[in-house]
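I am writing to request your help with a piece of structural work I have in hand. Here, with my thanks, is the record as I have it:
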Amino acid sequence: MFSVTEMQTFELFSVPHISVLLMFMALSFWMVYFRHFLKRYQSFMKWTLCWMLVLSEVSWHTWLVATGTWEVGDLPLQLCSISTFIGIYLFLKHSQKAFYLLFFIGFLPPILSMLTPEMVYQFPHFRFLKYFLHHAAIAWSVLYFIVYEGYRVPRKAIWTGFLMVNLLALPIFFLNLFLDTNFFYLANPTESKTILSFFGTGVIYYINLEIAALVVFFLTYLPMDMLVRRERVKG
């Protein structure tokens, strides 16, 4: 379960993969549909999600160090780690502007990552469990802040969030050149077959990344737009 070389038989949309996706969808629906009943357990949900984020990040680096596989490319500078830190910060302190960024990078991107994961390990390997629990916890945290703490995002935040991501990506791009890493997947697509594998190479790759980011941001905002409009109608 914790081996570096064993259980490297992950298959896209295999039974374990589809099962975790269905469980994620079921629990997401449960959080939203039964929100009035679950409101009494809000504090428990809040700290459970917070600790899921903390333990996911800590256990990941503990495993890397314990197995002697930690590299500079494992620094917590990927989007999921950034989302994790923002989520933990929001659980500890209210911040509307911080949520704007988390909303756009911490909801749909983790779900897309679960659909086409950069994964070689099969269930029940630690990497498999950590990967899906971690990404699910990020998306659930966004849902929690919207449903249980009333966070809302204005339409103009689409461009604010897009600008913030690009401002984050700029130093990361040069850091990748300096460290020969691939944070934010700015150097090249993932090694496994994912959505990024179809983005081409060179300048085309970066253009497609920007287009994809905008598309994801607009798609992410659609449910929020409907929610805000509905609340305005209800006064």
Summary: The mean pLDDT is 92. Residues 173 and 186 are 6 Å apart (CA to CA). The chain has one domain: 15-234. Residues 15-234 form one domain.
